[in-house]
Specification:
Two copies of one chain form a homodimer.
Chain A (H helix, E strand, L loop, with lengths): L3 E3 L3 E4 L18 E6 L15 E7 L9 E2 L8 E2 L12 E12 L2 E5 L7 E8 L2 H4 L27
Antiparallel strand pairs in A: 2-3, 2-9, 3-8, 4-7, 4-9, 5-6, 7-8
């Protein structure tokens, strides 16, 4: 299949300048950040301010070469890359649900960010529970480890 | 910022051969489909079978040229592209949460699919409610329209 090329529509600003020490999921962060939308895309923000939460899709620009089987932050065993959330993926696309606080011109103020400063933004979608949340009855290897997410921090292993 | 290039890791097979008539969200579909992972990426599927739901990121290969303000399927007014889920986006990345039924070799059997047949797959992530679901108290223009999703169908306007 053909390669697919995207152009960033903005840039994410956060308190996390380096991978080491950053939270590893939005649910583990109360950190605030801003999303700068490039001027030519600002018309696309119309009506977004009605949503309390938004989906951010972005490029893990600091991730190292992908590996298919790696050890995640919260585990001692190696797992398949599609079964974990690490950035060093075949296509290094990141996904986070964050709270939208307000929009001022081309700047979105958000809360609950786990994204490195300077990350290129690919897309924003409105978060809609009916579309995007599922009653997941099984979460695999994370079952007895998901509680560690608040204390786990990036140790730089994927960058 | 630089362009970002991705290579598909697989291809999505579904009953929906054309945009017209397809469901517009996974929550409006009980349809089953399969995801064919290209052989070189199969080691990355290790441990994924423990998860009841997975996140699919894919390229809307049939979407037309992006527009920043468009009329969504479930509304009579035009909305900003970042406030709707239409495929004709600046970067045409699709996002769906689907149920994983089983994995056989390089084939994932899934349920609740709203994706066109032949769609290039970019990434799979395990769906984890603690990371990915939010108590969204506001869903903007969708507030009184989200109930229409079960009956709304693609009419081909974005392809």
């Amino acid at each position: 299949m053909n390669d697919i090329t995207y152009k960033p529509v903005g840039i994410i600003h956060s308190p996390f300048k380096e991978p080491e020490g950053a939270p590893i999921q939005p649910s583990a962060s109360q950190a605030r950040g801003t999303i700068e939308i490039f001027p030519e895309f600002v018309p696309g923000l119309k009506d977004l301010d009605g949503f309390s939460h938004i989906i951010l899709l972005y490029h893990f620009h600091r991730s190292r070469k992908p590996e298919l089987v790696v050890r995640p932050f919260m585990d001692t065993e190696s797992r398949g890359i599609f079964a974990i959330r690490a950035p060093s993926r075949p296509n290094s696309i990141g996904f986070s649900v964050v709270r939208l606080l307000r929009i001022e011109g081309n700047i979105l103020h958000v809360e609950g960010i786990d994204i490195l400063d300077g990350t290129p933004l690919l897309d924003i979608k409105p978060y809609v529970p009916k579309f995007d949340s599922a009653e997941a009855e099984r979460i695999g290897w994370l079952e007895d480890k998901v509680g560690k997410v608040e204390s786990a921090r990036d140790d730089g292993r994927f960058s």
